[in-house]
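Example 3.
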Amino acid sequence: MSKPRGRPARGDGITREQILDAALLLLEEGQGFSMRALAARLTVTPMSLYHHVGDHAGLLRAISDRVYAAVLAGDAAAEDPAARIRTLLVRYHGAVKAYPQLTLAIFAQPAAFAGTTRDITDQLLALLGMLTRDGELWLDILVDHAHGSALAFHALRDHPQQAASMQARYLKALDQLLARLA
Amino acid sequence: MSKPRGRPARGDGITREQILDAALLLLEEGQGFSMRALAARLTVTPMSLYHHVGDHAGLLRAISDRVYAAVLAGDAAAEDPAARIRTLLVRYHGAVKAYPQLTLAIFAQPAAFAGTTRDITDQLLALLGMLTRDGELWLDILVDHAHGSALAFHALRDHPQQAASMQARYLKALDQLLARLA
DNA sequence: ACCTGAACACCGTTCAAGT
DNA sequence: ACCTGAACACCGTTCAAGT
């Protein structure tokens, strides 16, 4: 029943990518994510995970790097600044909304995650600088609003009717804010 | 060394208020809040807490009720709507900022906390209705922004220089938004 | 009513042992 | 290099026992 003690035959071992995939799923199920539960799902010993992703904080960091890297996908030069700003914010809002538990974990240990979303805010700030003199102020407003809205969405996940209209409400609020920017 | 097993003499027992006071302090120290750690700080058995505040979720609920009730203090009729809106938002932002760990715990289990801040949003919505037809939209914008900003403040708590200017930046952003509302 | 103490099913992580 | 297994110091919570 139990696996042999030593190094597994080639191909039998667990992959870093498999761990991250499973971790993201388990995390957002919300029923108590833990290293041990994740290991059990992968039919592996808890300590096996440490070899690939480090400890709990390291695992969360690897997950968030993957999730937020996807927000920056696409060619920045292909859109005009206003459109690119909107694209980045909608995608960022979508990522936070899709993985609220990850977001909460990040906020709970901000020191460990400084810089994870730095690329996104840097690009947004540069783009905002083209449209207004108050770039930093509007970066605050837009990013904070995206965070708050996405988390509020999570808070309403048990009320499908309200949740369904949340995306439309975010887009409406975002366009309202962007219109005030110009 | 150890306390007697039975009911303590009058006045020797622990108070619900003492538990909430200590819990709020311990929670925001950020070094791993737990029922057992809280009990240890109060030099009491973990199970003693259950008698006064229920389980972990019940304790958090009791804490948040206390914290957010303070936001509504003061006489609503003494201020005009715009001023009252600003007062409520600044105070709400202050509460979230002062107790970020509490806020994160609430967002992590939103089902258990539905209604905790309902009084605040209800009053804000009524006030916003006096100033604009898009009351719900602006409620979203202003509350979400307050949440996001307060949590961002927490994320920067290890960078005192930036953190010091965060309050001023929130007030500036808030006034910017409120100006757009009229 | 209010507290203790033992117990159960969990955690994250370290360290040694195995291939 | 990559995995297991035992161990340590923790969790939240239930239940029985005590006054």
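Residues 2-8, 13-14, 44-45, 47-48, 51-52 of chain A lie near DNA strand D (CB under 10 Å from a C1'). Chain A has a mean pLDDT of 89.
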